[in-house]
Amino acid sequence: MLDAADPITFAAVARQAKVSTWLVYAEGVREHIEQAMKRQADAPLHEQRAGLTASPASLRTDLELARDQIKQLRAERDKLRGNLRLQLGQQLEEISSKGMAERIDELAIANQRLAMDNQQAADANEQLKGRIAELEEELAAARASLRRVLRETNRPSPIADRRSGSRPGEPAAG
Description:
174 residues; 5 helices; 80% helix
């Protein structure tokens, strides 16, 4: 147990030896266990004096160095995270900018096409308005001509009135 650095107690020795605890307290056995417990307790001091273990001052120094290194690593991690965020932001902006530039170009082309379509529609509208005005003039002339023809057709001629013996405005006898 001493070589394995297992903690030496009366109960542990009894368990290891597979005997009852009263036997380990018996005279002759107890002295050996107490002597082993004392050697185990003195071992760290002996190892420390021999330079096999670190002193508390050395352990404190190692701890401070480890803490400083942890601080440096955390600062480096934070700096790398910040740089990564900036790079990702720039990449996203480039992707967005490219996409936006393409979309702007598409919209500009569509706008030009719609402007041309609008201009063509406006020109066609003006032509149709002119055609409507012409047709209205022709219709008005046709109506006027029709009225004149109807008046002339419905007006009795003076020669026909004399032959029939009727008066103007009276229907002819038939």
